[in-house]
Structures are given as C-alpha cells and as structure tokens.
UniProtKB/TrEMBL annotation:
EC number(s) given by UniProt: 3.2.1.55
Alphabetical UniProt keywords: Glycoprotein, Hydrolase, Signal
InterPro entries referenced in this protein's UniProt entry, alphabetically: Alpha-L-AF_C, ASD1_cat, GH, Glyco_hydro_b, Glycosyl_Hydrolase_51
Signal peptide segment: 1-20
Reactions catalysed: Hydrolysis of terminal non-reducing alpha-L-arabinofuranoside residues in alpha-L-arabinosides
One Pfam family it belongs to: Alpha-L-AF_C
Main enzyme class: hydrolase
Organism: Pedobacter ureilyticus
Official protein name in the record: non-reducing end alpha-L-arabinofuranosidase
Keyword field contains Nuclease: no
Domain (Alpha-L-arabinofuranosidase C-terminal): residue spans on this chain: 461-647
Family statement drawn from the similarity comment of this UniProt entry: Belongs to the glycosyl hydrolase 51 family.
Length: 656
C-alpha cells in the first residue's frame, strides 16, 4: 500500500477515535435522586499513633509529667551543683494505683541555678512569641521555705520566658498551684526548667505546661491549629480511639475508657502499643496519659457537629501480637463496659455514669448513636463474641447502631467469612479496611455497585493508597495516591445507599515521631499542613450533598473507562448540583456534561486539583497542591469541560 495512503488512513483513524472520545457525553439526571447521602458519609478517624494525641493534638508540652513512664525520669534531667546522690528520688504512693509515682526533692540552701529539673518535651517544646503559657503542678511540702523559678529556654540556653511560684502550703496533703507567663521568642525546640531556691523537702507530681491558645480556649485542652484542620473538613463523624489502640498488645494494654474519664490526675497511664510495634521506628517514650480521654473525644465531636463513633474492645487483643482472648464465660465485664459507655454518653444526670459526665461539666447527653464492637478482629472467635455484644446491647439500647469488624483486608477468605457471618447476624454496619496500592483503588471504584441495597451498610473505616514501600514518611503522600483515592471515593459516593460512612487513616503524624505513613495531616511542634489526600477528603466532605444523582457515560457508571471516574449529588438545602470528576490519564480530555431535568442552572464554578503524580505538600510548601476555583459557563443545560491530566474536579452548579 502507498505510504501516503497508509498515513492518511492512520491519521483519519486517530481523528475519528478522538472525535469518538470527545463525543461521549456525561449525563446527569438532576431531577431524580437515587438515594439519600447520610450526614455521616465523610468523617475522620482518630488514633493515638504517630504521636497524634500526646505530643500532638493534646496540647500538653511536658513529657512524662507524672513520672509514670516505664523509666520514671524519661524526658527529665536533674540539674545543678547542689543536687547530690539521693536528693532527687522517685517514690511511689502505695495507696494510688492510677498515679502512684512522684518526685521527692531535698533542697539544701540553694539559690537559683543550684538545684532543679528540666523537661525536654516531645522532641522539644514548641513556643510562640508573646503567647501565654500556663504552668501547674501538684506538690506536697514537708518542711522548709521553697521558691520555684519556672523558665523556658531555647536550644542555646537563652531564657525566653520566666516566672516564679511560691510554695504556700506546708502540710501532709497534696496541693495544686498554677502560674502563667509569656514567651519572648518563637522556638521549635525549647526546654522547661524548674529551679528550686531555699531549703526544704518537697514532693512534686503532675508537672504541666499548656499554651493559652487551645481550641475554644479550654484550659489544658487541645492544640487549636490541629483541631481547626478537622473543623475545616466539616466531618460527619469522628471515630475514636482507634484502631489497634483499642485492642492493645495484650488485654492488659487495651484501651479502657473508664480509666480515661474523671480528674486528670486519676487517669491511669499505659504504654502506647505503637511504642514497640515497629522495630525500624522505635518509640520508647510513647505512652498514653489519657489527658485526652473519652469525655474530651465526645466534647470534640460535639464541637464539630459530628457524630461520635467510639470503638470498644470485645475481649480480644491484637491478633497480630498476642491474640489473647477473654474466655466467653468471662466476657460480661467487657459487655458491661459497652453498656456503661452508652449510659455515660446518653444517660440522665442521675444515672451512675451520667453523674460522672455531669461532674465533668456536661449535664446534657452527648446523644451517642453509634458504637463499634472490636477493631480489625477476625475469625469464629470474633463472631462468637460479636453476637453476645449485639444481643446484650440491642436488648437495652435497640436504637444504637452497632459496627462490626470485617478484619484487616477487603479481599481474603477471612473477609468473605466475616462478611457472610455478619450479614447473617443482620449487622447494622460492617467496617471494611483497605490499605492498598493506588492501582487497587482505581480498579475497585465499582466495588459497591453490586452490593445488596437492603442488607448491612458499609463503613469504609480505614483507607489510604500506599505507594512504593521504598518511599517513606510524608513523601508517601503523593498526588498519585490522592487522585486514586478520589477516584475510589466517587464509587463510594455513587453507592451512598450502601456506604454510609468513610474515613481516611491515620489522621495525624508528627514529622519526627511517626510510626506509620502515609497520613492525612503532618505536624511539628509549631506548624501543621494538609497533604494532597487531606484536600481530596475535604472536597468530598464539604460537598457532601443530600442525595445521590445518577451520572452515566454511554448509559454506564463513569468508573474507569478512558481514565474517567465520576459521581454526582444534589444539595437541596444549598440548591446545588455537585459533580465530581477525576481524570487519571496523562493527557487532557474534552468532556461535555448534559444536565437532564427541569431545574434551571443559573451559575457554576469548578474547583480543580492537578499536577505531577509525584508531587506533594510540605511544611515549606504547605499549599504546593491545593484546590483552585474558577467560574464556568452553563449553556442550554450543558457544561463543556477541558479536564486537565491527572486532575480532580468538583463542579458546583446553582439551580433555580
């Protein structure tokens, strides 16, 4: 065949194919809602991993404030030429199981700088210029006259904030005193020094330092900038306290909610199970003080107008660790913990646990609606225990929606066994987890298209796209991962009749103290930034809508053909049609959208995220990738788009 003719035929074929691609319109039926979108559709998953609580969102700046770490003086150093052997001793109150240890100091005719203790904080203490800091401690002075000099110093030992605290009481009882002072500089890695001046014998405990600018100004509360990142997402729920934290390395190490409420000084510290989980990321100073406990979690959910979603241990320790089980005949206390938690959240102020909540300053119920039974547990031993929890809880609180585990993965024989058993139990909600490659997320965007619409609902409780294992830390939070998650989430949204809840995991990571990556939000002692994954989650959660709309291309769901993924919802409150489209191809695509229905579209905007698949955000470039919004034209109920390569696009169309 003549080369010119062959070339012409090839060019013609390419042109016809391009025209064919561009002629495939996306149709949205804007007058026919398919299913409601639950208010809980997009939420956040919190676990104390990566120093997410202590050293993170819980704003305490002193590490090992109560000397209860396995090594009692971890985080502390004794300073000064007049502190001799035996002058600083860790002692134990035999009468107290929750907080037995304290530090006894024998002060002998000292001046400032002669005798003191110093705390290093969590990889240093982040201090901001002109901000007030609230220092407090518990003490018991046996004799003498002692003045404390409290100071913050920078990494060159320059004093950047100081005050004094006079010990007033002199008896056998424990007392609490506090004092505030301001910092004169911004420092990422400061230290706290306490110098003792005078002569005497004193016991100290619960030594604490908090910034004054906590979330909602609550004393000894949460770090404001981290909570604000959550508030900006407008989450429908907050799942807590985990995660594997719930299970513990063994049952003694499990999370016990009753030990996390009441006065702070009476909450019993335990080792964080992520302390020893990963040999390549050891964290020997990782413990749980429970200053951030179940009351504070419920309060945070209320602050954010999000449903609280607590998860409780079901009598099973982590099956990857000890796999310890409570015998069935001894399970009753675990079930009672669940019943008591519901009373703590919802009981009136005269009930046993309602009184505890009231004593903490919240007489009104928290209106708990959801409760998770176990985390990532599996096997017939889990099903046996799940049935007991279901029977006992539903008998007393039939309105509580119970969430059950489907194990650790979405594909195995283990998953299918649990899925069948739980559906046979008529479970309310089944928790599915997926930590998989970006390719898996793209291939599974249609996962829920064929799920039973009338059976148990799905909670996509933990998910994140994981890149090549050679990539570590925050570098794993790439656009390749985030765009794959966006594509998958269109499938969750299209199937909101089945999927009632979804949350990325984990939530927070400290840049110097992480154990697991990728993570949604990265922090250091002073700053916080949202990853690309964060902005994807935020675009979904702030554009949730009220009902799903049918969206098709050639009469089929838009779920991977030509690299396109799409979903659509209507928001009848804001009077908006919201369309989410992902183009995972390396090339741009012209695409026409036809809006079928009687609603008249007035104006529209498109918000886009696009760029290099290997791109990411950082502390230095916190918004290197972030959504960009612009107006678009709507003509005759149609929108002509040019979808950038590797892009996630959210169209918001106002209707009359």
């Amino acid at each position: 065949m003549n080369r010119r003719i062959l070339a012409a035929l090839l060019l013609s074929a390419i042109s016809l194919n391009a025209m064919s691609q561009q002629s495939k319109t996306i149709s949205v039926n804007i007058d026919q809602p398919v299913a409601p979108v639950q208010s809980t559709m997009w939420g956040v998953f919190f676990e104390d991993i990566n120093f997410g609580a202590d050293g993170g969102i819980y704003a305490e700046l002193v590490k090992n404030r109560s000397f209860e770490f396995a090594k009692p003086l971890m985080g502390w150093s004794v300073k000064g030429k007049k502190i001799k052997e035996g002058d600083a001793l860790v002692l134990s109150r035999q009468a107290s199981q929750s907080n037995p240890r304290f530090l006894r100091l024998n002060i002998k005719e000292t001046s400032k700088g002669d005798a003191g203790i110093s705390n290093e904080g969590f990889r240093g203490i982040g201090v901001k210029k002109d901000l007030r800091y609230d220092f407090s401690l518990m003490y018991r002075k046996h004799k003498g006259d002692i003045l404390m000099h409290v100071e913050l110093v920078d990494d060159k030992n320059n004093v950047i904030g100081t005050t004094q605290l006079k010990v007033n009481s002199n008896d056998a009882n424990w007392h609490k005193q506090e004092v505030s002072f301001a910092s004169t500089a911004t420092v990422e890695k400061a230290r706290l020094n306490i110098w003792f001046e005078g002569n005497g014998l004193i016991d100290v405990d619960m030594i604490s330092l908090f910034p004054h600018d906590t979330w909602k100004g609550r004393k000894r509360g949460m770090r404001r900038d981290m909570v604000q990142m959550l508030a900006d997402m407008k989450p429908g729920f907050i799942r807590f306290p985990g995660g594997c934290i719930v299970e513990g390395m063994d049952l003694a190490n499990r999370y016990q909610w009753k030990k996390t409420v009441g006065p702070i000084e009476n909450r019993q510290l335990i080792m964080n199970r992520w302390n020893v989980e990963f040999g390549h990321r050891p964290a020997p100073d990782y413990f749980q003080t429970f200053g951030l406990g179940f009351f504070e979690y419920f309060q945070l959910a209320e602050d954010l107008d999000a449903a609280a979603l607590p998860i409780l241990n079901c009598g099973m320790a982590c099956q990857y660790n000890t796999a310890e089980l409570v015998p069935i005949e001894d399970l009753e206390p675990y079930v009672q913990d669940a019943l008591d938690l519901i009373e703590f959240a919802n009981g009136d102020e005269n009930s046993k646990w309602g009184k505890v909540r009231t004593s903490m300053g919240h007489p009104e119920p928290f209106n708990l609606k959801y409760l998770g039974v176990g985390n990532e547990n599996w096997g017939p031993q889990y099903v046996e225990r799940a049935k007991i929890f279901q029977q006992k809880i539903k008998a007393k609180y039939p309105e509580i929606q119970l969430i059950f585990s489907s194990g650790t993965d979405p594909d195995s024989e283990r998953f299918h066994y649990l899925n069948n058993e739980l559906r046979g139990m008529k479970a309310d909600i089944i928790d599915e987890h997926y930590y998989r490659s970006p390719e898996w997320f793209l291939q599974n965007a249609s996962r829920y298209d064929s799920y039973d619409r009338k059976g148990a609902k799905v909670f996509a409780g933990e998910f994140a796209a994981h890149n090549n294992n050679k990539i570590i830390g925050s570098d794993k939070n790439t656009w390749q991962a985030a765009i794959a998650e966006a594509a998958f989430m269109t499938g969750l949204e299209r199937n909101a009749e089945v999927v009632n809840m979804a949350s990325y995991a984990p939530l927070f990571a400290h840049s110097e103290s992480w154990q697991w990556a990728p993570d949604l939000i990265w922090v250091n002692n002073l700053n916080v930034y949202g990853t690309l994954n964060y902005y994807v989650q935020k675009l979904f959660s702030t554009n949730k809508g009220t009902s799903v709309l049918e969206i098709t291309r050639e009469a089929k769901p838009v779920s991977g053909t030509d690299g396109l993924y799409a979903s659509s919802v209507i928001d009848t409150i804001k009077k908006e049609i919201i369309i989410k489209i992902v183009n995972t191809e390396k090339t741009a695509l012209s695409q026409n959208i036809v809006l079928n229905g009687k609603k008249k579209i007035a104006v529209g905007t498109i918000t886009t995220m696009e760029g290099d698949p290997d791109g990411k955000n950082s502390f230095e470039q916190a918004k290197n990738f972030s959504p960009k919004e612009q107006n678009i034209s709507v003509k005759k109920q149609q929108v002509a788009l040019n979808l950038a390569p590797n892009s996630f696009n959210v169209l918001k169309l106002k209707y009359k």
